[in-house]
Amino acid sequence: MTANTPTVLSDDELAERDELAELSEAGEVDARALVAEQLDEQLEDLDDDGDFDDDEESGDIELIVLDMAGTTVADDGVVERAFALAAERSGIATGDDFEAALQYVRDTMGQSKIEVFRVLADGDEDAAQHANAAFEGAYAELVASEGVAEIAGAADVIRELRGAGASVVLTTGFSPATRDAIIDSLGWHDLADALLSPADAGRGRPHPDMPLTALLRTGASAVDAMVVVGDTVSDIASGVNAGAGFVVGVLSGAHDRDALEAAGADAVIDSIVELPALLGLRGE
Fold first, then answer.
1. Fold assignment, 63-74+149-278
2. Which member of 11, 73, 85, 127 has the lowest number of beta carbons within 10 Å of its beta carbon?
3. Where are the domains of the chain?
4. Record's Pfam families (predicted)?
5. Is 54 helix (H, G, I), strand (E, B) or coil?
6. Do 234 and 110 touch, CB atoms closer than 8 A?
7. How far apart are CA 179 and CA 183, in angstroms?
8. In this predicted model, what pLDDT tens digit does every residue of 149-193 receive, in sequence order?
9. Which residues is 69 bridged to in the sheet?
10. Are 157 and 273 in contact (CB under 8 A)?
């Protein structure tokens, strides 16, 4: 086998190669410097425009899941009064058992009402269904006779959030029929992108089903882009269990600040009207 003869470069060729190498290295350095300079300029432009803020509470918010009663809809004790009527009519909690049952209703505010009645009925499905039907009927009667009111400013907040580019879904532990009666009374048709009850999602709170169903219904890209807001520990737990990027408690309903924070709320505000500013979605 004959060995390859090494290529011999002239002095001029060697000088040309060294010059090209130097130019290549300089070019790479200049290119990297140019990219870095362009990135710095882009970041400065974003900062000047107010679109880049390290202190902002949220990133790109695509979906906001709002509870109804106690968060966007004033409760004013209607749930407890409806339960009292249901207990009387169904016999599910009478005499000495009534106060303990009422306290359980308070503690589980926000949860699917049929699940609450299953516990109170000690697993008797027929009794639970009867009591739940009595509750839904009593609640509908109270709404029809007394009307229902929004938490002050709630509808405007929902419009503002949607105007800022976020989808808004209203969720509740009520049945679809009761939920729709509330929406009818408020005249909130087409106010939100979707309405969800446990029956629409699979399970109620504190399970993650309703927030995750909201995400699928609206086409949000990830749970990190979702905010969940509510006034009960069940609302907060549902958001946490769904992996929501930000979970907010409000003090306009059932549970206090300590309970909401203990449940995992990232922030607690007095009312829904503070939400746009908290999320950085209000130009102030």
1. Rossmann fold (3.40.50)
2. 11
3. 63-74+149-278, 78-146
4. Hydrolase
5. coil
6. yes
7. 6
8. 999 999 999 999 999 999 999 999 888 988 998 999 899 999 999
9. 73
10. yes
Q: Are strands 194-196 and 226-230 parallel, antiparallel or unpaired?
A: unpaired
Q: Give φ, ψ of 256 to 5 degrees.
A: -90, 175
Rounded Cα distance between 100 and 45, Å, is: 60
Tell me if 198 sits within 8 A of 209, measured CB to CB.
Answer: yes
What single letter denotes the amino acid at residue 98?
Answer: F
Backbone angles phi, psi at 9, to 5 degrees: -95, 145
Task: Give me the pLDDT at residue 99, please.
Answer: 87
Q: Before 176, cis peptide (omega within 30)?
A: no
The answer to whether the CB of 196 falls within 8 A of the CB of 73 is no
Give the largest Cα separation in the chain, rounded.
110
pLDDT over threshold 70, residue 35: no
Sheet with 194-196, edge to edge strand ranges: 194-196, 167-171, 63-67, 226-230, 246-250, 267-269
Q: What is the pTM of this model?
A: 0.72
Where are the alpha helices (H) located in 187-270, listed in sequence order?
A: 198-201, 209-218, 233-241, 257-263
Q: Which DSSP string do the residues of 118-168 spell out, in sequence order?
A: HHHTTT-HHHHHHHHHHHHHHHHHHHHHH---BPTTHHHHHHHHHHTT-EE
Other CB atoms within a 10 A radius of the CB of residue 183 amount to 20
